[in-house]
């Protein structure tokens, strides 16, 4: 299956990326001519990683009847110093909010995403040392 997007220049360092499902604005930092009107490309990569695994986990939690009040995913990434700069170390933190957690099912859902379902996680494995952890926040 082939996926296709198109990126169109909107002036200065602003671009619009259009996919069949929708669009997103991309912009550079102000110090290099951007206007802060969109995500930067590397931030979009981290967003793709978090979004991919988040969708897996949300779906799996529902199937396993292990709902939580809320969950968030934080991604911390180390950018190399030399050009081309890339993320050589990435850490994904799954934060679950609620009480009476079904920890075995939550951990299974995260592990299934990380090890089997999330294609973006697999892509990151090709160029970075990627790790993850689960944090429970009682409410």
UniProtKB/TrEMBL annotation:
Family matches, as InterPro entries: KH_dom-like_a/b (IPR015946), OsmC/Ohr_fam (IPR003718), OsmC/Ohrsf (IPR036102)
Family matches, as Pfam families: OsmC
SUPFAM superfamilies: OsmC-like
Domain of life: Bacteria
Protein name from the UniProt record: Putative redox protein
Source organism (scientific name): Lutibacter oceani
Highest classification ranks of the organism: Bacteria, Pseudomonadati, Bacteroidota, Flavobacteriia, Flavobacteriales
């Amino acid at each position: 299956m082939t996926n296709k997007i198109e990126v169109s220049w909107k002036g200065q360092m602003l671009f619009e990326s259009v996919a069949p499902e929708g669009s997103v604005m991309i912009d550079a930092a102000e110090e290099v001519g951007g206007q802060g009107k969109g995500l930067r490309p590397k931030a979009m990569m981290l967003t793709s990683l978090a979004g991919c695994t988040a969708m897996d986990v949300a779906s799996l939690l529902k199937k396993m009847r292990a709902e939580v009040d809320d969950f968030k995913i934080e991604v911390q990434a180390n950018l190399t110093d030399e050009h081309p700069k890339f993320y050589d170390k990435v850490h994904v933190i799954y934060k679950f909010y609620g009480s009476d957690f079904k920890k075995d099912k939550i951990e299974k859902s995260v592990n299934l995403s990380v090890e089997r379902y999330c294609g973006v996680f697999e892509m990151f494995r090709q160029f970075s040392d990627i790790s993850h952890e689960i944090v429970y926040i009682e409410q």
